[in-house]
Amino acid sequence: MPVFSYEAMDSRGRAVRGEVEAASPDDAGAKLRQQGLFPTNVKLKSAGPATAAAVKTDVESRSSFFLGRVSHKDLTVFTRQLATLLDAGLPIVRSLEILEGQMRRPLRLKYALRDIVDDVKAGATLSEAMSKFPRIFDTLYTNMIRAGEAGGVLVPILERLATFMEKSLRLRKRVKSALIYPIFVILFAGGVMFAIMKYVIPNFEKVFKDMGQGNMPQLTVMVLGVARFVQHHWYLIILAPVAVFAILKLIRLSEAGALALDRLKLSIPILGRIVAKSQTARFTRTLGTLVASGVPILDALDIIRDTTGNLVFSNVVAQVHENIRQGGTIAEQLGNSGVFDDIVVNMVQVGEETGELDKMLLRVADSYDEEVDNLVQGLVSLLEPAIIILMGVGVGFIVIALFLPLITLMTSLSKGGGAK
Hints:
The chain is mainly alpha-helical. The chain has helices at residues 25-34, 49-67, 72-87, 92-102, 107-121, 126-130, 139-151, 154-210, 218-232, 234-252, 255-267, 271-292, 297-305, 311-325, 330-337, 342-354, 357-419; strands at 3-9, 15-21, 38-44. Helices cover 77% and strands 5% of the residues. Helix 13 packs antiparallel against helix 14. The longest helix has 63 residues, at 357-419. The protein is extended.
């Protein structure tokens, strides 16, 4: 029976290495799990490159639950550190070994680096070794590494890639941090309204019944009806967002549905502008970085088309690709798309005419990053008072609805007393 060498983690998270006899890699993995181990790398002791690659891909897929995901921040830090070590004159293998040795989290990246070191020692290029882990190193990443290796400029490419990732990460952080406060206020306001409807208003309804208030104002009847619904069907309020999320996911399963949703995003006031400008910044920065790294323009557009995250922009990129194949220019198709602003089209046109397309694209990206940041800040500044006003109007509406019966009762009592 074949013998497999393995690397695994025990129940305490400690690394374990050894050998196991099994009929196949899957069988070896099953035996290790029966022993309470979580396999991270399983391979034949005499396996060739093709077999080893297949095993690594399989193990990566099966162990991802236990090892966690590699975040954008983790990969950005790794890229910057690798560029620094290589720039200091250390060989690739030694640099990777240093990073793997000092890395504690994420474990998934740590064990991937261990395999990458083995492959590079065996004669594979860095891009080939990284391409075996597509969930960590995407097409954009590996193609830039490949371009750097082909041109003998791996260090500048890594530095450019790290800068690209750092700017993308910085924009994400700014957007997230700006939205934290409004989201907190919305959740707090929603919780307050829910508590009023479920626990406060029912007590008023009992008081009204005890006082014999039969014909209550229509406004009060409406508020009491909403409170009864919340009291008896509160779970529907929780399930509604989940249902909406599930429906949207189902719609996105079809290309037509995904395209319709992406178009809808772009048509929403203010939010649509933020999405459009952030997509423009992402497109121009990615294309500028790839072109500056020596990736052929058609290959760069292929990469971007698959990584835009928005089908409207993805279709435009596909049209740009086809237009270039037929002898056209990027600016020409961007202008015809109706998606990109005139300033973007003009800057790209100038870049194509002067031979400095990459510089122009990166300038556009920097400008649009700032615009996205300003738009997000403006949206937040509008949301904060709007939420407070809406909450005040809602509470005031409820207070008026609850006090109308009391006012009616006091009016009728005063009239009755006056009649005597």
